[in-house]
Write a structure and sequence with these properties.
Blueprint (H helix, E strand, L loop, with lengths): L11 E5 L6 H12 L6 E3 L19 H12 L3 E5 L2 H10 L3 E4 L1 H4 L2 H11 L5 E5 L6 H13 L5 E5 L17 H9 L5 E3 L1 H5 L5 H10 L4 E5 L17 H10 L10 H41 L7 H17 L4 H24 L1
Parallel strand pairs: 1-2, 1-8, 2-3, 3-4, 4-5, 5-6, 6-7, 7-8
Helix pairs in contact: 1-2, 5-6, 11-13, 12-13
Bound molecules: phosphoenolpyruvate (PEP) and manganese (II) ion (MN).
The site of manganese (II) ion has 4 residues, from loops.
Length: 353
């Protein structure tokens, strides 16, 4: 995958239908999405891992030559999903050079190891979607297994995490997980799949923009010549024309500001942030020292560590003060929980000393 290194970062765009349905569907879609010059790769699922049986499970290997032909006619490289060693064998035999591993496969270390073993010695590029459950280590593990099999080009695709009762999103984005992945593998190319995160067309623009604002390297967007009639994921697919509009509307930003004055302003602001971060930790340390003293008092007087009323009092006070400072209730809740756990950890240590 080649990332353009202009001052404004151009996202790498993968587009195409959720599923391959016929050769002419792929050719028509491919030609239309390539017209803008902004799409870098054509996607289509040949084998579809469906959550429930009896849903459309893909056309199968008959679709491989269709995809290759569509890529040729639109002058785009192609990518498809594989889930086992047999798929790998068929894809390699067909001469396909890019594959993705789906969310229902990256949860399974056995499947990933089988895929990694069967890819050994090939020069294929692999995009690894996050596992369906919010487990960063499974995602990391899948990438490591592929790297250990000497696959040079391993990239990541963030497609969100499933929940029992999806609300706004089909799959919760949980942006902190892909950010943590990037922390683990700073050089990995990270793409966002707003189609599977959102589950509906209307959300694609805003999710895509958010991903680019977080410095993602690209997007994978499901695009179909006639989305309402798509054989899978109809509600989240868009037409090639809608794709053009979304791509044209994206605000592209620079990773580093090259304007000198602006960048010195930025470093002043960053210095302020660094100082505040240190102050916050100092204050938290002081707070913990007081928690330790309370721990000693509780131990001497045989009082339980958890005093529910007191904890509720703290929560209420902070939940009314936090929003006045422009902080969301969700943040306050997470912050207090972390703080409380650290306090309990300190006091438990004191009790048991
Ligand atoms: C897909 O890309 O069509 C797909 C099945 O994705 P995921 O594995 O993210 O559900
Ligand atoms: Mn899909």
């Amino acid at each position: 995958m080649m990332i353009n290194s202009n001052s404004k970062k151009m996202p790498f765009i993968i587009a195409g239908p959720c599923s391959a349905e016929s050769e002419e569907q792929l050719i028509e879609t491919a030609k239309k999405i390539s017209a803008s010059g902004k799409v870098n790769m054509l996607r289509a699922g040949i084998w579809k891992p469906r959550t429930r049986p009896n849903a459309f499970e893909g056309v199968g290997s008959i679709g491989l030559p269709w995809l290759i032909e569509a890529g040729k006619q639109a002058n785009l490289p192609v990518v498809t999903e594989i889930a086992n060693a047999k798929h790998v064998e068929l894809v390699l035999k067909a001469g396909i050079k890019h594959i993705w591993i789906g969310a229902r496969t990256s949860v399974n270390p056995f499947a990933i190891q089988e895929i990694a073993d069967s890819l050994k010695g090939s020069s294929i590029e692999v995009f690894v979607k996050n596992p369906i459950n919010p487990d960063l280590n499974l995602w990391i593990g899948a990438i490591e297994r592929l790297k250990n099999a000497d696959i040079k080009d391993v990239h990541a695709i963030h497609r969100g995490f499933s929940s029992f009762k999806p609300n706004k999103y089909r799959n919760e984005p949980m942006w902190e997980i892909p950010i943590a992945l990037k922390n683990e593998f700073p050089d990995i190319q990270l793409l966002c799949d707003p189609s599977h995160i959102g589950g509906k067309r209307d959300l694609i623009q805003s999710i895509s923009q958010k991903a680019l604002d977080l410095n993602y390297d690209g997007l994978m967007i499901e695009t179909h010549r006639d989305p309402d009639k798509a054989w899978s994921d109809a509600e989240q697919q868009i037409t090639p024309t809608e794709l053009d509009v979304i791509l044209a509307n994206l605000v592209l930003r620079q990773e580093q500001n090259i304007n000198k004055n602006l960048s010195s302003d930025l470093s002043t602001l960053r210095e302020n942030i660094d100082k505040i971060d240190r102050d916050i930790l100092t204050l938290l340390g002081n707070r913990m020292k007081i928690a330790d003293e309370i721990g000693i008092y509780k131990k001497t007087n045989n009082i339980t560590i958890l005093q529910l009323n007191r904890w509720r009092e703290i929560q209420q006070a902070q939940q009314s003060y936090g929003p006045e400072q422009g902080l969301s209730l969700k943040f306050i809740e997470k912050y207090l929980e972390a703080l409380h756990q650290e306090s309990i950890r300190h006091q438990t240590k004191i009790m048991n000393d």
